[in-house]
């Protein structure tokens, strides 16, 4: 995987850390060091030349993985940016728009600053070096090692084990939320969070959306203005860009805005397990008079191999079944694109929050609409004493303190970073990606009036399923033929909970494709069986509960594949990184024939 690496103490070289990452033969490593401190970035090189930077000067080492999309507008040199982070990181970081993860090692002051962008578009993991703390948290530390993958940090733990609470998060939400990782003792930075190491270690959220909402009057115009600027900023950071069509209305709106800006672009349609949006992408390309490609399957590449690559790219921090277009994105994608631009309008994000009343609980609403498994089911699967609802409370506690609706919307954005945005690591293994992480856009989206979140759909409305009303209002203002092109299955009513959308209710289909594949594909079935048998015996899982889940899968009684994907990914990652036995650690999916 492309990504950043570094440390402020110790003797591990950047090349050694990079060797522990997933590699493609075209990757290039850029690094810098000063004394015991070192930083680096593993990147696509000429495939995405405008992304990533390593900077050294004035006793400071800096690295950005991704792009600071508004740096030109702010008139910041890289020296100004890293010196600002070293001297006053909160104020400087609050001005920056992503998508990025960054690190700044100030060798003058013996301090380290790590940060994620406001949307949490890229993972950033860290492990204290020489930690003198205990169960209550970190104490004084000698330094910190950090990376955008867990692999380089496994060696920092004397006895690496799975984190029970993180495993519970993975099963409850389909992704590990908050500051934990599947590797106990290694932390993760949520969106808009900075970590400072200076004798001790502390984390802080440096930016959050405003608590108050916005008036409905004029809101669509404000949203569209912020969206235009955010999309223009990321578009200018990619010379050769392709618009990704996952089958939702947001991509079509992005295409309309890019057309207004006369930005040359190609379209690439993703046929996910929910159907994809090939027709819309083709019609958009016709309007652009630019090339369009529909993703293609490689009959020589098996799903098992793709799953293995997806788990490696995401460190099992998200259920692999959430990754669109496997096995294409793990192998064929780099032949069709250099940089993928995601529309990321998120006009249907947390539409359910519009119905939250003043006396309702943000935590209850988040659990109801964003969980993919019931908490009781998760408790049964865990042998450890870890309450999965603790994760819900922790996410809400880290969210904006305001009316329940605002808190819930902000919390849902953190869940999105841990799930949907984390799956994009699989794409970044093949191409560059651009996710919208503009502070003004995220603030405006979070403060959307309830009247624009929920409503009814006029029979004549051509826009997707017509929910929420903001989507119709934006399309009307664009006034483009592109904006009224109907969307495919992904444009359906998005007010359902993630549990319903993932197939936990009768009639849902998201997990059905993998369940059918399990029933008909011998190699895939042996692969899943082997991993479920293994994870059943691994702490902190309950062997009987995992075996019961396995039996339900074999009997074709599971309505969602999400827990199977989460558990098989966890076992595959653990075998490679945690098992003492060399033979077991070296086992890979491709050996399951």
Overview of this structure, please?
This protein has 593 residues and is an alpha+beta fold. The chain has 4 domains: 3-205, Glutamine Phosphoribosylpyrophosphate, subunit 1, domain 1 (4-Layer Sandwich), CATH 3.60.20.10; 219-347 and 431-458 and 467-484, Rossmann fold; 356-416, no CATH class; 513-578, no CATH class. It is 38% helix and 15% strand. It contains 23 helices and 17 strands. It has helices at residues 14-19, 71-74, 78-95, 164-173, 219-235, 249-260, 278-288, 303-314, 333-336, 362-370, 375-381, 389-397, 404-418, 420-428, 439-446, 450-453, 469-478, 498-501, 512-520, 522-536, 543-554, 562-577, 582-586, and strands at 3-7, 28-34, 37-43, 53-57, 60-66, 100-106, 111-116, 125-129, 143-147, 187-188, 193-198, 200-205, 241-245, 266-269, 292-294, 339-341, 432-434. The strands form 3 sheets. A 6-stranded antiparallel β-sheet has the order 2-3-1-9-8-10. Strand 14 (266-269), helix 7 (278-288) and strand 15 (292-294) form a beta-alpha-beta unit. Helix 19 (512-520) packs across helix 20 (522-536). The radius of gyration is 23 Å and the shape is globular. Residues 272-276, 456-466, 489-495, 500-510 and 582-587 have low confidence and may be disordered.
